[in-house]
Amino acid sequence: MVERLDDTLAPMEVSVFEPTAESSARQRILPDEEWLLHQPLIEEIQRLKVARKAVILAHNYQTPEIFHGVADLSGDSLALARLAASSEAQVIVMCGVHFMAETAKILSPERTVLIPDLAAGCSLADSITGADVRALREQYPDAPVVTYVNTSAEVKAESDVCCTSSNALEVVESLSAERVLFLPDRYLGHWVAGQTSKELILWEGACEVHERFSAAQIRGLREGGRSLKVLAHPECPPDVLAEADFVGSTSGMINHLKRTLPARVALITECSMSDNVALELPQIEFVRPCNLCPHMKRITLEKIRDTLLHMRYEVQVEPELGRRARRAVERMLAIG
Ligand code: 13P
Ligand code: SF4
Fold first, then answer.
1. Is residue 101 a contact partner of residue 316, using CB atoms and an 8 Å limit?
2. What's the pLDDT score for residue 35?
3. For a pocket test of ligand 2, which of 149, 209, 271, 297 has the largest count of ligand atoms closer than 8 A to its C-beta?
4. Closest ligand 2 atom to Cα of 209
């Protein structure tokens, strides 16, 4: 039963947007006029969040008004899984895609996990089913199954251990088997295979956002003489990764930028990454060849407000399936 919040909330105060040091920093990523438009919703969400005792988790690909405006905690897929496991909040609002909310529910079955749009999917999660994993196990009975977290609970439940782009190599190396089924991202798998002596059997899945980048595009960016550092996500095709100066997860890229502070950078990944990092690292010039993830972009401030107002859309995982999936996720968290 949805609790009515009308009685518990004080009337909304009208706030006047005054430029401050923080607002001028924000202006680097969105003009003041745009922040001004977002401000009423941001304030409404902040108030609803307190009333619902909720925590808002946001992936690094969320838009700046979500990432900087309402998120309590943010990070890459691994960080979000860890935060979901350690959060004390009874209500978790996941601003990301469905597999991220499902992973939070798998790790915290007693909590209420909400996602602002149930249709926020992922081409990798859609590329493989539990039945596919069972068929592969029959074909390769001695190979343990390592599954990227970008998969459904059903696929995780059929797996031995999960991984993210932050820890994929570490997870593969932790296994004693010499042959490993690595599912479902063929490009992440190819990148890991290039760094381990183990044989990786890959699936044909791919991220529809990262597979659109090309090596020629990167070479084009470098033309013109001005020094440019290229950081790429391992979901990109191998020829794109070969052109990059650094390959890592979304948080891996952010940490690399903070450590090395290059003057000019291209982040070969989803578009919001550069916007979100630019606020914190104003000294870096971001060159922006980027691709939008249509699934991540389904999450908006309006939908987050409605999520908190109506306590929707709750993500459920059948308990026995969740128990089996949790084994694979917790095994990953214990590794790194
Ligand atoms: P990471 O944030 O774990 O690098 O993952 C990127 C991604 O595509 C998530 O959907
Ligand atoms: Fe899935 Fe790619 Fe979007 Fe990430 S960026 S959610 S991997 S489609």
1. no
2. 87
3. 209
4. 2
Domains present along the chain, CATH in parentheses: 21-122+296-310 (3.40.50.10800), 125-205 (3.40.50.10800), 210-287 (3.40.50.10800)
User: Can you tell me the mean pLDDT for 224-244?
Assistant: 95
The string of pLDDT tens digits covering residues 114-168 is: 999 999 999 999 999 999 999 999 999 999 999 999 999 999 999 999 999 999 9
- What pLDDT score was predicted for residue 287? 93
Which residues sit with their C-beta closer than 6 Å to ligand 1? 60, 76-78, 97, 122, 150, 164-165, 207, 233, 235, 249-250
DSSP symbol at 125: G
SS3 content of the chain, % helix, strand, coil (to 5): 45, 15, 40
Distance CA 148, CA 152 (A): 10
Burial class (CB in 10 A: 0-12, 13-18, 19+), 211: middle
283-301 burial, b if ≥16 CB within 10 A, otherwise e? ebebbebbbebebbbbbbb
Ligand approaching nearest to the C-alpha of 124? 2
Find the 193 Cα to ligand 2 centroid distance in Å.
Answer: 21
What is the Cα–Cα distance from 14 to 12, expressed in whole angstroms? 6
Q: Which ligand is nearest to the CA of 77?
A: 1
Model's pTM, two decimal places?
0.92
Residues 188-194: what's their mean pLDDT?
A: 98
Strand (E) or helix (H) holding 117: none
